[in-house]
């Protein structure tokens, strides 16, 4: 009998593998040729199928019975990019300094309840817009909840 995806022994991800996965997502964005193979090679310990499965798990798209590989595409086919994947990519394109600025602004403005709270937070993060700060916060919140 087949074990559920989350309990397969090789599907246990270490903190380092998750860190490498995050870096690989930024290095190989959606639409990159052989993306899953490249990310797998970057991590070095996971197969392309495991990488894709984890990606779907992190974006909430994994469903029982769903295929673990994307459908093969021919040259010239449109490359679908899911909104969630675009948001995730935007959320991952942060430097350590920007992350620290965001955390500091969130901490400083924790009690601030006005409509322009996210505008004030974005003003404290170099090179990031209000929308990018909100997306990053939502992205990190989903990771924290898992």
Describe how the helices and strands are arranged:
Layout (H helix, E strand, L loop, with lengths): L14 H13 L7 H9 L4 H11 L24 H10 L3 H13 L8 H7 L6 H16 L1
Helix pairs in contact: 1-2, 2-3, 4-7, 6-7
Q: What structural class should be given to the helix and strand makeup? A: mainly alpha
What is the average of the pLDDT values? 79
Low-confidence stretches: 68-73
Count of DSSP H/I helices: 7
**What distance separates the N and C termini?**
27 Å
Strand content: under 5%
Q: What's the total count of β strands? A: 0
- From the alpha carbons, calculate the radius of gyration and give it in angstroms: 17 Å
Description:
This protein has 146 residues and is mostly helical. The chain is 54% helix and 0% strand. It is built from 7 helices and no strands. The longest helix is centred in the last third of the chain and has 16 residues. The radius of gyration is 17 Å and the shape is elongated.
Which keywords apply here?
54% helix, mainly alpha, 146 residues
Q: What's the gist of this structure?
A:
With 146 residues, the protein is an all-alpha fold. It has helices at residues 15-27, 35-43, 48-58, 83-92, 96-108, 117-123, 130-145.
């Amino acid at each position: 009998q087949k074990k559920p995806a989350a309990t397969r022994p090789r599907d246990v991800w270490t903190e380092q593998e998750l860190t490498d996965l995050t870096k690989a997502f930024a290095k190989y964005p959606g639409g990159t040729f052989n993306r899953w193979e490249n990310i797998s090679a970057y991590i070095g310990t996971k197969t392309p199928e495991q990488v894709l499965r984890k990606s779907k798990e992190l974006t909430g798209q994994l469903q029982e019975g769903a295929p673990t590989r994307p459908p093969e595409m021919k040259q010239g086919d449109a490359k679908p990019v899911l909104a969630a994947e675009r948001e995730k990519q935007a959320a991952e394109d942060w430097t350590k300094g920007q992350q620290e600025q965001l955390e500091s602004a969130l901490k400083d403005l924790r009690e601030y309840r006005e409509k322009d709270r996210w505008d004030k937070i974005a003003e404290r993060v170099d090179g990031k817009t209000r929308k990018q700060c909100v997306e990053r916060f939502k992205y990190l919140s989903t990771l924290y909840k898992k």
